[in-house]
Amino acid sequence: MEAKIFFGDIETTKTKVGEIVNPYTKEVVATFPICDASDANEALKIAEKSFKENRQIPLSQRILWIEDVIESLRKNREDIAKTITDEVAKPIKFARIEVDRCIETLRLSVSAAIEQGGETFSSDAMPSGRKTISYFTRVPIGVATLITPFNFPLNLIAHKLAPALLTGNSIVLKPTPEAPLTAYKFAKLFIQSKHRSPNALSLVYGDAEVGSTLVKSSIPRAVSFTGSVPVGEIITRQAGIKKVSLELGGNAATYIDNSANLLSVAKKCVVGAFANSGQVCISLQRIYAHKDIADEFAQILADEAKALIIGNPYDDDTFMGPLIDDESAQRAQNWVQSAIAEGAVALSGGESDGKIFPPTVMSKVTDEMQIVCEEVFAPIVSVVKVEDFDVALSKINNSPYGLQYSIFTNDLSLAKRAIEEFDCGGVVINDIPTIRFDIQPYGGNKLSGIGKEGPKYALEEFTEIKSIVIC
After folding, report:
1. Which contiguous run of DSSP H or E holds residue 301?
2. Which of 9, 48, 259, 266 has its CB surrounded by the most CB atoms within 10 Å?
């Protein structure tokens, strides 16, 4: 099936097209137009022109617009879920969950938009001031560029798009090249709605050329990107003076105290490490286990990993399918082999079967190995034996990333220390750091990014404060 581009409300095709190959079946599942800088510039001009009208549209109409999309998503749930599986080989049961979460994200965005308001302030609080009617309100920022990744090709668009549109902005969306059809079907639901803001959303595809054009242009006043650190660094250099929000991934870790229930923890950790084939920014990658239980826990975790159902992503029972492409699988293989050569041991997995890189539990790793110190974005987790929480804390925080960390313990004092001392954007107590509720403020420290997602907090990224004083 062919994905097209949207210049505002106008759907169009291009002569030059690319193909999307399913990572599991290796069959062509979609084609898409290959865009260039001229397409990006055209979309930006349409967005700039449409903003002047769209900013005047009342919130009530924009709410009807999102509610219309929600209803269309419900009706098309299975088709869109299958499209996600077609393009990125996400197991179908998790693709359905992503559609459901997308609906929830849209609903949360509507609620946040309704609740968003300004605030009064006391202009006579200091001797130099005087009594006035003083307050601030939030206004749309203008044109926003949204760039989204492959691992959640639907819901991560929703986390940017819905808050941006509800606040009255005009949008140019550049989705991941790996899932153009998912983005196309989602965008079309917005553009077909009778309640839409005219020409408020454009959709273009492309890699560096298109992305750089969208980022460098003086037309957008905001850039929201989810992806890799190297690309995030390029965007930071190219964007100039505009709002930039970046969600750049992480190296999620947990500490397991000797007071924890090991089987219960292991069952949670296999989900945190291997869901979506480890292709999650907060995928559990590092497990620091107390020396008294580390070896036992590592074996329990490996046994749980071996019990996971892996294979055909179209089967309802499949937990884990393939990585997004052969290059990712080869990188994972190389990192494991390098670690083993340096003394690490693979307790489960460790070697690709040609289609799928299996759930891999590593032990006897050191802090310098790539599978520990860099983001693997693959189904690999390492168990590291530590003396106590103090050692684990030092190792967990000794990372250039800081997205989410967690701790498993029945010791309240350790839980309180984790909340206070973990250097990251989110802390989870007695569960995996891979937890993300769509309502929460989400984003990290250090190389993990700038800004926050979650509908209420994304609204702030796509608005500016206007201060009012009536004398």
Report:
1. helix 294-306
2. 266
Alpha-carbon gap, residue 134 to 154, rounded angstroms: 41
Interacting residues of 26 by C-beta distance below 8 A, sequence separation 6+: none
Burial 365-379 (b: 16+ CB within 10 A, else e): beeebbbbbebbbbb
Burial 37-76 (b: 16+ CB within 10 A, else e): eebbbbbbbbbbebbeebbebeeeebbbbbebbbebbeeb
The CA–CA distances, whole Å, from 242 to 292, 415, 461, 463 equal 51, 39, 11, 12
pTM for this model (two decimals): 0.97
Tokens of 189: 């639901």
CA angle 451, 456, 462 (to 5 degrees): 55
Residue 14 CB-half CA count within 13 A: 19
Residue 420 burial (C-beta neighbours within 10 Å; 0-12, 13-18, 19+)? exposed
CATH of 5-248+448-470, one of 3.40.605.10, 3.30.70.560, 3.20.20.70, 3.40.50.1240: 3.40.605.10
247 belongs to the catalytic site: yes
Structure tokens at 81: 């879920």
Full pLDDT tens readout for the chain, 471 residues: 678 999 999 999 888 899 999 999 999 999 999 999 999 999 999 999 999 999 999 999 999 999 999 999 999 999 999 999 999 999 999 999 999 999 999 999 999 999 999 999 999 999 999 999 999 999 999 999 999 999 999 999 999 999 999 999 999 999 999 999 999 999 999 999 999 999 999 999 998 999 999 999 999 999 999 999 999 999 999 999 999 999 998 999 999 999 999 999 999 999 999 999 999 999 999 999 999 999 999 999 999 999 999 999 999 999 999 999 999 999 999 999 999 999 999 999 999 887 899 999 999 999 999 999 999 999 999 999 999 999 999 999 999 999 999 999 999 999 999 999 999 999 999 999 999 999 999 999 999 999 999 999 999 999 999 999 999
Maximum Cα–Cα distance across the chain: 74
**Residue 281 among the catalytic residues:** yes
Distance CA 397, CA 407 (A): 13
**Ranges in the chain annotated CATH 3.40.605.10:** 5-248+448-470
Out of 247, 375, 460, 461, the active site residue is 247
Catalytic hit among 35, 102, 281, 424: 281
Pick the CATH number of 252-438 from 3.50.50.60, 3.40.50.720, 1.10.8.80, 3.40.309.10: 3.40.309.10
